[in-house]
Amino acid sequence: MNNRIKELRKLNKISQKNLVSNLGITQQALSNYEKEKRIPDQPTWQALAKFFNVSVAYLKGIDDKTVIKKFSSEDLLQELLDRKVLEPVKDKPINLDDVFLLHK
């Protein structure tokens, strides 16, 4: 099982220097992660996954699902309203303060 750190970094045309500056790790650590000489700790896996918008399992090479879809708050609220998981309060525009979770 190979991790996909280097693959994703190259695919996104990101240098090691740029990636480490965004993650707050050393270039040596990243190089070792990419060569699988060292294994990132869980917070580093999570930071890498968040940076590349993938799951930790995908990044580790465990899962083939590539992308976690990002939603804006408004899109997420609208989706939850459409699925009737949330219900608007009054006839106001959607915002986080004006919805509540329906209890089943």
From TrEMBL:
Transmembrane segments: none
InterPro entries: Cro/C1-type_HTH (IPR001387), Lambda_DNA-bd_dom_sf (IPR010982)
Keyword Isomerase: no
Keyword line: DNA-binding
Pfam families: HTH_3
CDD domains: HTH_XRE
GO function terms (MF aspect): DNA binding
Record flagged with keyword Phosphoprotein: no
Domain HTH cro/C1-type residue range list: 5-59
Superkingdom of source: Bacteria
Designated name of the protein: Helix-turn-helix domain-containing protein
Protein species of origin: Lactobacillus helveticus (Lactobacillus suntoryeus)
